[in-house]
Amino acid sequence: HNDSSGMDLYINYKGRLVLKWDLFDQLMREDPSTINGAEALMLGEMLTLPQNFGNIFLGETFSSYISVHNDSSQVVKDVLVKADLQTSSQRLNLSASNSAVAELQPECCIDDVIHHEVKEIGTHILVCAVSYTTQYGEKLYFRKFFKFQVLKPLDVKTKFYNAETDEVFLEAQIQNITTSPMFMEKVSLEPSMMYNVTELNTVAGGEDGESTFGKMSYLQPTDTRQYLYCLKPKPEYAEKAGVIKGVTVIGKLDIVWKTNLGERGRLQTSQLQRMAPGYGDIRLSLEMIPDTVNLEEPFDIICKITNCSERTMDLELEMCNTRSIHWCGVSGRQLGKLSPGAFLSLPLTLLSSVQGLQVGWRRLDEPPPPSGRFSPLTNVLRVHRFRASPG
């Protein structure tokens, strides 16, 4: 910028990174998108970045080097450099210091490096403003603008699968929607206070922590990768039937990646929510069952009965035999009263009379309420399979 007094000031803007050639050459040779034997094709030995910044992706860190240089032969005073970042919703001050420099000699400069983690999509404008006083007491001011776009780097989709137990499986589909490969440094699930999480993205029986995606975890443009997690309610919540009900917060995904020049980006999703499956007034789950049983020999199972309703239940157990599964015990037995949110562990004995995979049925009824109006609860409970072998 050249003012009327003949004193020149300018802002020199440089984007992102300046790399030494040996480091850049190493990165290019390891980049899966380059051609073997021609990694440096059409590249000189100096990495030159354009004056126009271009695009940056959500979750990356915007870095800029700003230099104000006195190109004149005069001393200027009270030089104040201010850098603001204007987004669609706010204006942020990125300057490291808001105090003015008393004097700036000819051929000297004021330097500043700013950093900002980008958290919004859309147009961003870096506004660099300089105010100063000439040696004649004249106050001058000018601004420069640098516009760039913040784009979405990843498309994230989630699916929930409810197991027969209280476990919840989360599948996260992550797609690279940029034009360059990404190194997926970390994709993890931070569970809410109600759940414990187990990552299912390692090779069973492989090396310790070996990823199912291999050692070089690159995600090419437009490629999609599936990550799987198993969430299980913590014991203190699993025992309270009324807590994990309706819409519950599962947690949030934390995704960290690096692009071609080693720039790191990080995104965290909002809290993921799921609708808990409805179990009706009474839920019956299986706590223990053997994998294999002997033919025509009794075997034991343990069931858990939970009252999910808001009223006390008076329960009765009715046993219904099938052609292959027979119950050992008294049918029509009174189980007593079960208060809201309470559970009952019920040991039972069965006998299998047919070889192979068998299916057993169980029915639990609630007697008519005291009002005399018949309102039975006839839940057909879980189908269990038993493997029988010759005795």
Automatic annotation (TrEMBL):
Give all residue intervals belonging to the Trafficking protein particle complex subunit 13 middle domain.
154-277
List residues of the Trafficking protein particle complex subunit 13 N-terminal domain.
Answer: 22-150
Going by the entry's taxonomy, the superkingdom of the source organism is recorded as Eukaryota
Annotated Gene Ontology cellular component terms = TRAPPIII protein complex
Q: Where is the Trafficking protein particle complex subunit 13 C-terminal domain?
A: 290-358
Quote the InterPro entries the UniProt record gives.
Answer: TRAPPC13, TRAPPC13_C, TRAPPC13_M, TRAPPC13_N
- Tell me, how does this one assemble? Part of the multisubunit TRAPP (transport protein particle) complex.
Q: Which family does it belong to?
A: Belongs to the TRAPPC13 family.
Q: Which PANTHER family match?
A: TRAFFICKING PROTEIN PARTICLE COMPLEX SUBUNIT 13
Name this protein carries in UniProt: Trafficking protein particle complex subunit 13
This chain's source organism reads Cyclopterus lumpus (Lumpsucker)
Please state the gene responsible for encoding this protein: trappc13
